UniProtKB/TrEMBL annotation:
Keywords annotated in UniProt: Oxidoreductase
Superkingdom classification of source: Bacteria
Oxidoreductase recorded as keyword: yes
Protein name: Short chain dehydrogenase
Molecular-function GO term, any one: oxidoreductase activity, acting on the CH-OH group of donors, NAD or NADP as acceptor
Species assigned in the record: Cognatishimia activa
SUPFAM superfamilies in the cross-refs: NAD(P)-binding Rossmann-fold domains
Record field: transmembrane: none
Domain NAD-dependent epimerase/dehydratase: 10-254
InterPro entries, per the entry: Epimerase_deHydtase, NAD(P)-bd_dom_sf, NAD(P)_dehydrat-like
Keyword Nucleus tagged: no
Length: 354
């Protein structure tokens, strides 16, 4: 166990995001004053769910307008804060200009937030939401990791602007963060490296990429088959707990792989069969050769190189550091998938079958 210091406000960037929302919820319920940095605080619909949480918590929320690409944009929001949770970063795979849409916001946003931390004497710790994508690019990379299992010592060296651009953006952003952190000795940087984030959102209509994947499982898009594209999965609620531990646990340090389950798209879909058998869930796994042939027609950034380096190749990662040092425990994958699917039905993202 660890104590959460509520004597100073805490900053959460991208506070309306999928992960950030649960982090804000945990902090408010612990009694913290949360400085929520968002693009436009005047958009009431965007922050309504956070206001409702704050109204039923012992903590307090204050909103600040901030833009990832504007240096100095976070100066007002960070004033007086003891811990900074930098969660804001674009997460999409289908982009036209990877440099402009992914790399620049991720890298420059991180630099701008950490420059603000450097100017703010009250800041003692910064928690950066990075990703396992900064550790590996393709599943084929896993075989080169120590004992064939990813750990915090490994860095993604296979991604670039034309191949796995999102992973490249996360890698470059985390590298920039460590460079700034090592240039000073007042605040500590703790990095959270989650695998694919799943589970229910606090917003009524979530837009995370993981919801797009699960929607295709339930609406019939993947009826004839789902890929054996392996990855780790973490429940968003457990990830929020990991963030708060990274912010306040005295033993928190360095990089931390936050991943509960080693699975794949097809296996994830099968977690829904028991409760949602009426839905057109995938009947089987897509053969790799078929996915390779169809890749150029699939859209969403899919390429034959991605199929070749990821399909039917296991994903393995050592999650023991974070579990041991941050005191984490994780929900079953079925719970995560069922809670997520149920929310999508409630939100009308999928048609409910009676």
């Amino acid at each position: 166990m660890f104590d959460i210091d509520t004597s100073k406000p805490v900053l959460v960037t991208g506070a309306t995001g999928f992960v950030a929302g649960w982090v804000v919820k945990g902090l408010l319920e612990a009694g913290c004053t949360v400085h929520a940095a968002v693009r436009d605080p005047s958009k009431a619909e965007k922050i309504k769910h956070l206001d409702e949480i704050a109204a039923n918590s012992t903590g307090e929320i204050k909103y600040f307008a901030a833009d990832l690409l504007n240096d100095g944009s976070y100066d007002e929001a960070i004033a007086g804060c003891g811990v900074v949770f930098h969660t804001a970063s674009p997460f999409t795979v289908d982009v036209k200009d990877p440099q402009k849409e992914l790399v620049d916001p991720a890298v420059n946003g991180t630099i701008n937030v950490l420059h603000a931390a450097n100017k703010t004497d009250s800041v003692e710790r910064v928690v950066l939401t990075s990703s396992c994508a900064a550790i590996y690019g393709d599943n084929a990379d896993v075989a080169k990791a120590p004992n064939g299992r990813l750990d915090e010592s490994v860095w993604n060296t296979s991604s670039n602007l034309s191949h796995n651009a999102y992973s490249f953006s996360k890698t470059e952003a985390e590298k920039a963060a460590w460079e700034i952190a090592k240039s000073q000795d007042r605040w500590k940087l703790v990095v959270v490296n989650p695998s694919l984030v799943a589970g229910p959102a606090l917003q009524d209509r979530p837009t995370s990429e993981s919801f797009s994947i699960v929607k295709q499982m339930g609406d019939g898009t993947m009826r004839m088959g789902a890929p054996r594209w392996a990855f780790g999965v973490i429940d968003v609620r457990d990830l929020a707990t990991a963030h708060i531990a990274a912010g306040f646990h005295p033993d928190a340090n360095g990089r931390n792989i936050i991943s509960a389950h080693e699975t794949d798209v097809y296996a994830m879909s099968q977690e829904l069969k028991q409760k949602y058998a009426k839905y057109p869930l995938p009947r089987g796994a897509v053969p790799k050769w078929m996915a390779w042939l169809m890749a150029p027609m699939l859209g969403g950034g899919m390429t034959r190189a991605l199929v070749a380096r990821n399909f039917n190749i296991p994903w393995r990662a050592d999650n023991t550091k974070a579990k041991r040092e941050l005191g984490l425990s994780y929900r079953p994958l079925r719970t995560t998938m069922e809670d997520m699917f149920e929310q999508m039905l409630d939100a009308g993202m999928l048609e409910r079958k009676l």
